[in-house]
Amino acid sequence: MALATHKIVSIGITGSIHTDQRIQRIANTLAEHHYQVNIYHRPKRPSSIDSTLFAGKSIHIITLQPGVQTGPLFYLFYNFVLFFKLLFKASDAYYAVDADTLPAFTLLSQLKGAPMVYDAHEYFSEVPELSGKQFKKAIWHKVVSIGSRQAKLNLTVGPALAKALSERYKVPFVSIRNLPYAQTTSPTEPSNERIIIYQGALNKGRMLETLIEAMPDLPNYTCWIIGEGDLSESLRTQAKGIPNIVFKGLLTPAELKAITPLAYVGFNLLEAADSLSYHYSLSNKFFDYIQAAVPSVSSALPEYIALNESYQSGVCIPNDKQAFIELLKSWEAAPEVHQKLKENAKFAAQSLTWENEAKLFIKAFQI
């Protein structure tokens, strides 16, 4: 079925498009299929802006900066600004990225009679930051309940979460995984240094405190922590005096792609006991590690167990400092085990690509 041309899709995110690889890939795919894509975002600092990101494509980036930048009022103000920014602009479809842009786009979709897509990057009402905050959880649950019913298409990042959200909200969710583009350049040789890499948000539940605690017992390793988040300051304070930890801050996807293959192991532990969002997670970084042929260490959660059983490109361990240390020492004692994981990752990388997943996305996106 041929897709209509020149339809305008308005995408809203509360973060920066320059660090959101999922939406970068989706925007590129829509543009390749003759959609005009307008992305409304909030870069956290000017240096994070890459002016060449979508050069030559029918993709426009519009910066929004509400008067309030943090706390509950931020979401209210951001949706207010987003709503009025688009109220008098033409749009054939609205694309809400996560629940925090749903209020504006749900209302716009209702008022203008234009279809809406809801892309749930996580189980928003069950994120760790809302643990124990029943009133806030109830509000976000209601936002998603109303928005997902208004949406013509509901997407999320993995099959387990799609099933859970479908059951919770009584509407179908489609799984479109966060797969990276296929590696098109010659792979970088791993560093002679044993590098443990973490990439992603520095937020609660990512087990980064445990990673830092482990590093004094791993003097032959260097730990790269890439990203920023709510715990940026406290993690840096915790790591003071530990020489083999390097905080690299925010990097662009291109910068990440260049340095990830240097790593010995990718870190992907999550504390999911109090977070259904983490329990059903399927992170970008898991697939980025595979594409870079870097064996990964993940928590024993449904999606990671299933994928590691299928591809054997990484291992699942308990969320325990000693388990992590012992795993790395076992690889040192039997380097052929680590090498086999690398080879399996290279094989998995051939099929786990956005080029393949994009076909599923476009099939679902008939707007």
Structure description:
The chain has a seven-stranded parallel β-sheet with strand order 3-2-1-4-5-6-7, with helices on both faces. It has a six-stranded parallel β-sheet with strand order 10-9-8-11-12-13, with helices on both faces. Strand 6 (153-156), helix 5 (159-169) and strand 7 (174-175) form a beta-alpha-beta unit. 41% of the residues lie in helices and 17% in strands. It contains 14 helices and 13 strands. It has helices at residues 21-32, 72-86, 102-112, 134-150, 159-169, 208-214, 232-239, 253-259, 276-279, 284-291, 302-311, 321-333, 335-349, 354-364, and strands spanning 8-12, 36-41, 59-63, 93-97, 116-120, 153-156, 174-175, 194-199, 221-226, 245-249, 265-268, 296-299, 314-317. The protein is an alpha/beta fold. It folds into two domains: 8-179 and 353-364, Rossmann fold; 194-349, Glycogen Phosphorylase B (Rossmann fold), CATH 3.40.50.2000. Helix 1 (21-32) packs across helix 14 (354-364). The protein is globular and about 65 Å long. The model has no long low-confidence stretch (mean pLDDT 92).
Percentage of helical residues? 40-55%
Task: Please indicate the percent range of residues in DSSP E strands (runs of 2 or more).
Answer: 15-25%
Give the number of domains: 2
Average pLDDT, to the nearest integer? 92
Reading the helices and strands in chain order gives EHEEHEHEHEHEEHEHEHEHHEHEHHH
The CATH topology name of the largest domain reads Rossmann fold
Identify the strand order in the major beta sheet.
3-2-1-4-5-6-7
Separation of the first and last Cα atoms: 12 Å
How would a crystallographer describe the biggest sheet?
7 strands, parallel
Structural class: alpha/beta
Rounded radius of gyration (Å): 20 Å
Show unreliable segments.
none
CATH class group of the largest domain: Alpha Beta
Estimate the global geometry from the Cα principal axes.
Answer: globular
